[in-house]
Amino acid sequence: MFRNLNTLFTRNFLRKHQIKVLHQLNDVEVLDELVQTYQYLTGALRRINSSVSSQILFLMGFYFSSLTLQVLSIVQHIIHFKSIIYIIWGICAVLIKEVVKLWILLTIADNCQQEEDKIKKILYKIVDYNKGLQLRTKINGFATQLFHDKIELSAAGFFRLDLTVLVSILSAVVTYCAILYQSDPNINSMQQIYGFEQTP
């Protein structure tokens, strides 16, 4: 949605010599329409974020615990039940499905925030190409509003939703699995992995 708005900003102000302005409006009227569209989109995004951010926080916790348990299950099946390969492949398929769902959710949130950030860059280009005083005043007012009014999708305010969350979750899953596997008193991990006894 913000990508379309960025395209409209660019088309109407930076590439005006290539196409006609919609409905023969002047630059200030077009900017007013685009600002209203931007405010509508950011308002909708804020409402979406406020209504689902706590569910997203719960979902991130669920994905973290689910991925941890699935990786532990894969490790246990590889070590103890080497002949049951179809169970391992089934768990791997579920694990991949969970990671892909998490990646899709975080990619959408990240792309939305990146497109919203591009609007600021486009506004500065518009100021450079258009020298009208009324248009520059409107753009400066809108740019000031953008500076103080940053859109951020988050999980109940705890962390921003972007692709770095996926890396953090996957690294935490690996760390927890290593700790849980090594602290299991029923197995001698050094003997299982390296073939020699663990010294006390």
UniProtKB/TrEMBL annotation:
- Species per Swiss-Prot/TrEMBL record: Popillia japonica (Japanese beetle)
This chain's protein is named 7tm Chemosensory receptor
| A Pfam family of this chain | 7tm_7
Main location as per UniProt:
membrane
- The residue stretches assigned to a coiled coil in this entry are none
Q: Which GO terms describe its cellular component?
A: axon; dendrite; neuronal cell body; plasma membrane
The UniProt entry lists membrane topology as: Multi-pass membrane protein
Subcellular localization, per the record? Cell membrane
Query: Where exactly are the transmembrane stretches of this chain?
Result: 56-79, 85-109, 163-181
Keywords from the UniProt entry: Cell membrane, Membrane, Receptor, Transducer, Transmembrane, Transmembrane helix
Q: Name one GO biological process term.
A: sensory perception of taste
Record's keyword annotation contains Transmembrane: yes
Taxonomic lineage is: Eukaryota, Metazoa, Ecdysozoa, Arthropoda, Hexapoda
